[in-house]
Prior knowledge:
- It contains 8 helices and 9 strands.
- The protein is globular, with a radius of gyration of 18 Å.
- The strands form 2 sheets. Strands 2, 3, 4, 6, 7, 8 and 9 form a 7-stranded mixed beta sheet that branches.
- The chain has one domain (19-25, 42-222).
- 30% of the residues lie in helices and 24% in strands.
- The protein has helices spanning 45-53, 55-68, 106-110, 113-132, 137-140, 176-183, 189-195, 219-222; strands spanning 19-20, 72-73, 79-82, 92-100, 102-103, 144-159, 165-175, 197-202, 205-209.
Amino acid sequence: MSCRISRRAILPVLAAGLALTFVSAPAAAGPQTDRVLPMEEYRSDKARQLAATYAPALDGLNTHLYYCLPWIEVQRHSIGFYKPKNAVGDDRYLSLRLYIEQDASPEFTSMPLPQRASAMFSRYVGTLLRQMTRDRRLLDDPAVGGFAVILEWRKHGVQGVDHRPVHETIAVFMEKPLVAGYLKRTITVRDLAARARVLAFDGETHLGPIVIAGWDDDFVRTYKVANYELPPEMSCD
């Protein structure tokens, strides 16, 4: 089986002004299992039942991200059925958090935050939703309230305390009917962006809701990493 590669190759800058870079990382035999929130960490019967029912789907999502998006990092416990802040009752969203490794780009850095957020949303959210809902039962399950995608990237040109890097983050919350409409193509990615609830963070500072735009961006689907081979049993379609 092919392993996750150690790499340092710069991807091309697209119109959105995003340049991604691979950083050296030790080879591993496969995705880490602790990326999925374990059953014992849930605090309600509803959440535990969701975790048990969709355990294969969450493990499959973790595997797909590891092999098919090798320039992103999924941190510990970043995949699971989380309760959105300020949710009423025990509302549960299937949630995914990613850190995107990206090279410094003057074009991207010079954009206002809503434009940077729009570019990141357009590049990743639609593709991620399709992978998160490969088990279509999620769209019909009344226990699933919606979906959340959290994207984080380095804010280049800025240093925090002790010269540590500062990250920007957007948290995109989408109710289930909205996601279902997008996946059925009854609404566009532009509509998805306009109707989603998007919160922005500058480092640890919560900036609150922001308005973003959405457009079609097929980078994730079309980009091929040079000299990178998937295991024969793995498909990224």
